[in-house]
């Protein structure tokens, strides 16, 4: 059983008030794009892509810019978020197919075994049983399809402390258990679901989150601090040619994997790899 830390109504409110645009900037954005290009290099021409948790469409736009030949699909529980994504992509002439539904629903199962690449960026950490949500990515992929998942990283003790003081909602809606390279590697090995040069790691440098701070003076002060700090990291990265030597932590983590080939009709065991629900 998966406990959700957010709801469709939560995300409707978030996207109705959010300032849209890239969720990553500068050095973090460049490192993310390099990872995305590595994964997309293995996707066939005209391949199919699914973003799980696709609202508000900013990542789908980035994928389209990197690979205009991709056939884009997205699933999200937020009807308002999907509406925003559709409008943004249509303005830029980008074609995409969306489903407004829970990724675990019977309707979503119609998209199982369908995609050459399945991705999500800032999704699995919003669930208590994040392993089950990660497993769903592999179910959507075709045998041999690629998986690319990123999560924010709030595991650093200083980051956790500042979020506790100045961004309580962020802590309440994020499961920090998955924000660990060690934990992601354990899942990757235990699941026996990956092929090829699959890997887990960090990217973006030592960043502080600032998107959902407390609505008071302390929250505003923290946001200013985070913006100045993050901007300074970007300047150092630019000055060193994106070679940051000191990284006490990274603001983002990634997992790149492949769905195993075989047992594609075995729904109870997760298509030839151990079900994540059996590992929790």
SSE blueprint:
Elements: H1 8-17, H2 26-40, E1 48-52, H3 58-66, E2 71-76, H4 79-91, E3 96-100, E4 115-121, H5 130-140, E5 141-152, H6 157-166, H7 168-172, H8 181-191, E6 199-203, H9 217-239, E7 252-258
Parallel strand pairs: 1-2, 1-4, 2-3, 4-5
Antiparallel strand pairs: 5-7, 6-7
Helix pairs in contact: 1-4
The overall pLDDT average reads 88
Structural class: alpha/beta
- How would you sum up the global shape? globular
CATH architecture of the domain at 8-153 and 175-206 and 246-260: 3-Layer(aba) Sandwich
Outline the structure in words.
The protein has 280 residues and is an alpha/beta fold. The chain has a domain at 8-153 and 175-206 and 246-260: Vaccinia Virus protein VP39 (Rossmann fold), CATH 3.40.50. Helices cover 38% and strands 17% of the residues. The protein contains 9 helices and 7 strands; from the N terminus they run H-H-E-H-E-H-E-E-H-E-H-H-H-E-H-E. The chain has helices at 8-17, 26-40, 58-66, 79-91, 130-140, 157-166, 168-172, 181-191, 217-239, and strands at residues 48-52, 71-76, 96-100, 115-121, 141-152, 199-203, 252-258. Strands 3-2-1-4-5-7-6 form a 7-stranded mixed β-sheet, with helices on both faces. Strand 4, helix 5 (130-140) and strand 5 (141-152) form a beta-alpha-beta unit. Helix 1 (8-17) packs across helix 4 (79-91). The longest helix is centred in the last third of the chain and has 23 residues, at 217-239.
Short description:
The chain has 9 helices and 7 strands. By secondary structure, it is an alpha/beta fold.
């Amino acid at each position: 059983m998966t406990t959700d830390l957010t709801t469709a109504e939560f995300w409707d409110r978030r996207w109705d008030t959010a300032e849209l645009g890239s969720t990553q900037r500068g050095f973090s954005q460049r490192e993310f794009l390099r990872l995305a290009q590595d994964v997309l290099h293995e996707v066939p021409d005209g391949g199919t892509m699914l973003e799980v948790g696709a609202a508000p469409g900013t990542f789908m736009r980035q994928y389209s810019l990197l690979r205009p030949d991709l056939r884009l699909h997205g699933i999200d529980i937020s009807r308002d978020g999907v509406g925003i994504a559709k409008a943004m992509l249509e303005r830029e002439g980008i074609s995409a197919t969306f489903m407004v539904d829970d990724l675990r629903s019977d309707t979503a199962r119609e998209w199982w075994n369908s995609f050459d690449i399945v991705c999500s960026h800032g999704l699995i950490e919003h669930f208590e049983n994040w392993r089950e949500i990660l497993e769903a990515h592999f179910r959507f992929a075709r045998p041999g399809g690629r998986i690319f998942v990123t999560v924010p990283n709030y595991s650093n003790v200083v980051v956790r402390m500042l979020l506790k003081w100045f961004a309580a909602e962020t802590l309440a809606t994020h499961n920090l258990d998955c924000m660990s390279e060690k934990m992601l590697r354990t899942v990757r090995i235990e699941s026996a679901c990956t092929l090829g040069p699959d890997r887990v790691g960090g990217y973006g440098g030592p960043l502080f989150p600032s998107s959902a701070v407390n609505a008071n003076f302390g929250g505003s002060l923290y946001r200013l601090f985070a913006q100045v700090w993050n901007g300074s990291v970007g300047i150092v990265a630019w000055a060193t040619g994106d070679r940051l030597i000191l990284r006490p932590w990274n603001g983002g983590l990634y997992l790149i994997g492949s769905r195993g080939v075989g047992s594609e009709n075995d729904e109870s065991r997760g298509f030839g790899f151990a079900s994540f629900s059996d590992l929790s």
